[in-house]
Design brief:
Rossmann fold; threonine deaminase activity; L-serine ammonia-lyase activity; 15% strand; 320 residues; four-stranded parallel β-sheet; alpha/beta; 2 domains; EC 4.3.1.19; Ser/Thr_Dehydratase; TrpB-like_PALP_sf
Length: 320
Amino acid sequence: MELFISDIIQAKNRIKNHIIETPLVFSDSLYERLSSNVYFKLENLQKTGSFKARGALSKISTLTNQEKSKGVITASSGNHAQAVSYAASLFDTSALVVVPENTAQAKISGIQRFGGEIVQYGATYDEAEKHAEQLAKETGRTFIHAFNDVITMAGQGTIGLEAMLEKPDFDVILVPVGGGGLLNGIATAAKAMNPDVQVIGVQSEASPAWHESFMAGRMVDVTYQASIADGIYGGIHEAPLQLAFSRVDGSILVSEESIAYAMKWMAINHRYIIEGSSAVTIAALLQNQVPDIANKNVLCIITGGNVDSSLFMKVMNAHE
């Protein structure tokens, strides 16, 4: 697997009429707290409520008419499923989506809103993915992987391209990481435009497969706990991990408590409703886990806002 800036530029040209070029917003609150120039790239304002629309559009826009006639299938914790349903509706094909049984209701409603047919299967993303791959073989549908695909990664990388075109002098970019597609895409785009920028993945302690594997330099087995950051929950694949070794500079783990606190902090200080998967980067900053950023330009990728309302209210009522 390889990914180049040219792939990301091509993806941008394919999807530009179907996405929102989301804003970069400066955080006065974090400047007061950290003396750092922190900016948010607000993909919670993206079509379908998350960055996943970019990757799904990038992939589905390349399918042949014959492939589209058979439809597409995917597995997802929710956001990618919504994105695939949205992209399928724009490119005249049908979407079958397999989601874990514990997927947030807000995400299930989003899938249905865009016309995706839902199959709930398994307790984890990994179980849902295996089932979806089997269904793809049985039905002839094209499997749209959430992160283990160069064309999908290129779509996600358009976030980094947009951000660096708007502000080329970022010193550090913090990216939520589950399977590594977004992280690799952003790192590829950012370093093509500024080789000195540091790109760091951030993950929950409850689902540390990427972090532990990246730090070990190889795939390792980990133990999983329940996580508020369900969008970056689950296992990883070898190819994205190997790709990251050539372009990603570091990895940070944050606690579940710090993620919940960061969600509440963003709602109070910026009036943004963000999901746990988005909040990991804010958590890392609020817990002072990102070193040497005083007077530096820092970009936080806010990946989505599709948080279940009952979970959000629970978060807001905690940490008084």
